[in-house]
Protein 1
Amino acid sequence: MMRINCDIGERGPGNAGDIKLMEVIHIANLACGGHAGDARTIEVFRALAQKHGVELAAHLSYPDRANFGRTAMKLSGTALLAALDAQLELLPGVHRVKFHGALYNEACRDPELAAVLAAWLQQAGVREILAPDDAELTRCARARGIAVLREAFAERRYKYDRTGRRLSLVSRSQPDASLSVLAEAAAQAEEIILRQRVNIQQRGKDRPIWKTLAADTICIHSDSAIALELARALRRLIEPFRLARPGLCETAGLPIYGSQDLAVTPGGAMDQFSLRRGNLLLGNPPGAAALEMVSPPEIEILAPGSFAVTGARRPVSVLSGGKTRAVVHGSAQRVAAGDLVTFGEKEDGLRAYFCFRPGAGSAAGQAGKTVSGSAVNAWADARGRIRVLRGPEYNCLAEPELFFEEPWQTTRLMDRMGMRLDGKHRLGCGQVNMVSGPVADGTVQLSPAGPIILLRHRATTGGYPRIFNVISADIDLLAQYGPGREISFVEVNRAEARKAARQKESVLKSCMNDSRGGSNV
């Protein structure tokens, strides 16, 4: 889920607007004395954060209160880091940092400064920073194992730096560097949140120029005249529904790659095909966050929009104005504030996905006949088998054909990391000891107790023989296997695996076309 962060505490402890903002935002970046702020302000805002469940970040800058930290300073590395140490000490126990003003902008484009700051962050015990996705600071921080919340700005205009090949903020010295009209700022934020893009076209031009802008959090400046109204509008956009009755579910998106060398798994939704399909039916970005549901909740709609349910099949109903209507699985359905979405008993599969697109005018397919799972999954094996390729230790198997001779059964020993199988045959393996090696989604390991299939949240290395690997097209199918279900395998070659992957992508392309044309396949 996208989170709202706010540069706050820069106008003292008693500012009414800042205090109201603390009821709406998710992350408060507290000024720590470099450009603004002091110990008393921090004390007040820490208390407000605890009261409203707001997370904290230390907002650190050049030590330049006279220029509000917006002017670059020529400091030695020692002097700069000493100033940052002093600021961080005002917010003990907080392990998230955001740099401010000139220091923020320079760290985005200067690799040497970014490297110095990343080393300092690691030494200071900082575990997470807020920074743009394409910043030098982001690259250096990730290399040191520091998590990055990719940041975008709601009320600042963007430009594209062709030399550095990255987006940057229009300088505050330029006219219209900030968006001061609520509708304009809200529109830019909506594009970032829902479509992961920003318009860099000059104001007044008719045709937009879009650039990709991936973000996990969107920033609002508390000193903006529209800050409070904008924060409230974004909160409605980000959280358009609530769980009226809890279930077994969590927010999931697509995997994030780039840190497996640091033992961080890409993760993401267990059934990424269903997640992408639901989003594409609504016109969302394919990786927009959705609810991944094993035991679905009741969902109360807080703002108008459209939703689609994909993955595991359950009866879905919408209670609206005292009347109940059934919902077609895998179709886009409009809902209004106050509607209640409920789910019946599971019919097939394990994990369902609730995808949502806010907006009263959001596109929605027209209700129609239910589309069978076999039609949606036409790229899968016709006999329902899971297709595998040979793994690095395949040759250790004494009788590899036994793996395919009889169906296996999934056991209760399964989670988001993997599933253990039980079967009639005991596979013999000549590999006694091995050095741990890299594993992937769908790796089939042979443990002393039998085969294990690694799933989306697996580790990055393993020490058991890797006898097979499920092909990429079929990994999502594994997410729909619950305990006690038969599972059969068939060996394929790489050409067949690539063909299945292409067929799967063609189904997703048809979903994209359906969202434009009103079908509900």
Protein 2
Amino acid sequence: MASETQAGRPRIDLSRYELSLDGERVKLERQPMDLLIFLVQRQGQLVSREEIVEKLWGKDVFVDVDRSINAAVRKIRSALKDDSDHPRFLETVIGKGYRFTGEVELIGVALSGEGRAEMESPRPVAPPLRPADPGWSHTWSRILTGALAVTLLALAAGNWLRRRENALPHPSAIRSIAVLPLANLSGDPSQDYFAEGMTDELITELAKIGSLRVISRTSIVRYTGTKLPLSRVAKELSVDAIVEGSVVRSGDEVRITAQLIEASSDRHLWAESYKRNLRDVLAVQTDVARAIAKQVNATFTPTQSNRPPDQAVVSSQAHEAYLRGLFFWNKWTEDGARKSIGYFEQAIEADPKYALAYAGLANSYIVMGDFGVGVLPPHEANNAAEQAALKAIELDETLAEAHAALAMSRFRSDGDLAGVDSEFKRALELNPVSATAHHWYSHYLLAVGRSKEAIAEGKRAYDLSPVDPEMGTHMQFLSLFLHRYDDVLAQGQQNIELDPNFGETYFMNAQALEQQHKYEDAKREFSKALALSGRRSMVLASFGHLLAVSGDRSGAQKMLAELKALSEKRYVPAYEKALVHVGLGNQESALGELNTAYKEGSHWIFILQSDARLDPLRSDARFQSLLERVGLSTKK
């Protein structure tokens, strides 16, 4: 009799490529999982090592049998909590191979290499019946025949019930959805970028369903490889349903498997596998999105339904480069932005009509400007971003990403603010659930004094990325420049609970504490921000301002000297240097740097009216003149 500590019956979901034990998902790598499925399919039979090698690796592929197979078997036993000395599931036949003898449940449909269905759900697999006495063969035959008839009737009834259930309305309306990161099942970690790109593109396609709130990528990345129950993930993200799946890429072919799960009931609403050539992979995302839209009784917006047909097919080389560019753009670092520019340019070279690649290039230049990592002069970054965004719109006017990029590229001191507003609204019309567009639009609204709308847009971005600390710090940013310092600190506490190593949270906390004259607390927060940001120049400058106003002029001078040394190596925003000069009381130098920031086209120039650190300059006529040139002098 099994002990109480022994594991229960395993369950393998072929459509999800997932193993669970006692209702909990168990992580198992690709090769051990493939071996487990193969052994279960040969349940009760002796499977030789030669058969395993041929099945898993092929006849002509060299495999270190002793290392590869033994390692896979150990991982299977560990996942099943099986004991090799007293096996309940997997027996070793010394010198021969292995036999799977335990009871396991197989559900779902898996596709073979030729695309045939191998298995249907659900069916339990139990140890084979072995009559003790051959004389009972006739009796056993009658028993088995009767059992088979009962089983067939049960399966028929089950199928009828499932068909009836699927024909019924869904028990609850699905108005929000999250796409968990598609698992890379290629066995090659270098293909992670491909799985991430497929996830991004599926999110983008689902965002075209007008009635559906789709959680942004920045919130779902933390669930990569998660073992959390889907109900908990759905609760954390405040969604009604979850999409999860996998990507397998082999040569020029891609297989994408996806399924839709209702969060409240853990009910599988839909599942499908698609096998396509790389050149047709974009069409798969549309197929998946439309299938899901059908399941949730939703439709695509008319504008998005009329996308140019040539966007569905791009060269595989262009798409490959685009996905690599997207992978590095999402890092929001100097190195990532530079690499993303290179890959987006490769995509454009491979396919000059690839609108998404131009939009990606525009966004990369925005990251390079002072709104992002701040390593290119704003005019240079903005002009490059604007040209790429305009080309993307010329090729595909319905690209929300391109309109958002154009709005940000024109959001500068000499920009057309009315035109910026129009482009942001167009981006949000095309993609109402773009967290990035809502985020960027809130910056614009704050700049032009529409504070209530700025908070509302920031909140929409936050709702679309509820567990993304970046969106949390954006809410801190809005509160900081609306002088709501207690709100900054309250939001900061929530951010730290999500990610205690996100430096921007401490940066925002420090600035709020400074305005509350809690200088020692602010210094501690600045020190954390400085360490976690790699001594980012804006953090250096803000820390320098604090040191100056708190009486440590020597420390502030050192920060200013570090900024000047850094500016000899790369671009450093003039606005940052102005902050330290204001703290030190160098009014002439501060005004000079602010005028330089205006000429550079700095995005930071738009918070002149809101930045409390600049209060000592407000009575100066030259400062008021600058506000007028920026277009902020009449802001209430």
Protein 3
Amino acid sequence: MLVKEEEMDKKNKKAQVTVFIIIAVILVAAVALFFVLRENIFVGHSIPASIQPVYNTFLSCVEQDALTGIDVLESQAGYIELPDFEPGSAYMPFSNQLDFLGNPIPYWYYVSGNNIQKEQVPSKNLMQEHLGDYIENEIRNCVFENYYEQGFEITQGIPKASVNINDNTVSVDLDMSLSISKGEDSSVIKNHKLSVKTELGRLYNNAKKVYANEQNNLFLENYAVDTLRLYAPVDGVEITCSPKTWNADSVFDDLQNAIEANTLSLKVKGEKNDYFVVDAGTDSDIDVRFLNSKNWANGFEVNPSEGVVMMSKPVGNQPGLGILGFCYAPYHFVYNIRYPVLVQVYSDSSEEIFQFPVAVVLQGNKPREALDSSGSTIDAPELCKYKNTEIQVNVYDTKLNLVDADISYECFSEFCEIGKTSSGILRDNFPQCVNGFIAARAKGFEDTKYQYSTTNDGSADIIMDKLYEININLKLDNKDYGKDAIISFISDESSKTIVYPEQKIIELSEGQYEIQIYVYKNSTIKIAETTQEQCVEVSKSGLGGIFGMKEEKCFDIVIPEQIISNAISGGGKENYYILESELQNSKSIEINAESLPVPTSIEQLQSNYLLFEERGLDINFR
């Protein structure tokens, strides 16, 4: 029995030792696990009370950085890091960014300087990446100075932010080791999550709806066409025997003012029959504002025009057309218009605004072609895609001083922007062409073309004529004349016209000109109403028409009574070679013309045009 008891004691002792060993292993493992996972233990409410204010400040920094980044995204069309800058050109004034109150905003749609339609609409993923990168960069600048003075030790690790943009919130998940300690209290927090209240996601979604509507329906371009036809001369006929003129600068100024006002009148809420209401498909509580300013980059072109003068010339008063019995001045002007519109999307419940600009483009009085999702071109010249011949262009004035100028190349009616000279010199690749033209344009100089074949590398020297502003002093029968006249300087390269006396200054360069003066005075020519018979051949009705038989049908044309209140009563023309020295050393050109009889009938009016062809002019530089 004693032996058995001893054996039992030995077994119990072994069991006790085994239990202690197991407990020891568990304790060692628990301690090891504590040290391994301690960075993740103190989060949220596990942070000591003395350290919690520091962590709250850190979370406030994360939130403020997120809100600041969101504000930048909303104000910069969904971008924090802007796309690479692309400049515009003389042909297309847009860069890829709109300068709005000194801040660049990337266009969602624009036309590049080389006439290619482009889109740069950011995706939501790109916005999330930009915002995450912004938070990573800015969180290191969180200010803890007050806590350092209180004895806290704060260490930040490398941040890695993940952002998710929702309709009404932005979720931020920031992985970054943050160590905070003071005295015996310490915490290491690795993961930080917060949700920021913002309507960024919803505003962005509605902005894309407005943009899609514009790209599909071109509603901004259609409003632009209406504005053009309401505020500028496009098509029409004036019953007059004297030219009808417009000042292009004044027309463009009126048009810009109308575009600015009408664009601001556009809205997405209101009665359906309201002309200015746009059905953009936005949410019911979302509003949209459309902005334009004539101070933003824009382009206005009109043809035909002579300088700043748009003119419709009369028909019916020339020799041989007296049979018409009346005069009229038809006109048809073709405009190319380009301007930006800034779209601002906002809700009734917040102060947030998401904005993006688009370019509005009219080509030949018509809206541009709608752009598909992959982008396209507006008649992009095929020639310009293949620039493979290096040419050096040297630009001089007539005294061989170097001139900085914009250089382009024209070949078979195609136009390619090349670049701008630096200190009068440009070395760049040109498209290959035989007998094309290098064109130079510089402020204060006459536009110049130089015929040059670009089949081989080489260089070209271009000499530009300087433009001089000079006053025009018109005399009629050797007496100062201050009433209506049209003055033209016509050369092989260009034609310049002013409407006197509203315009008395003209820019001229050295060259051979035909100078023409048309003087107009009040007249009282009355043309009575007349009826003329007009006959035409038409197909016979019935069976005869089937076999191609014709018959004559006549009808009366009634020409209404007309009073010609303004008729040519003086002028003439003269060929004259203008020297640069005359332009440089003179303040004005004095032109004397002879008067003609004030016509009292359509026959006398036509006679005046015959006399005009024989009359010369006296030209003197003063």
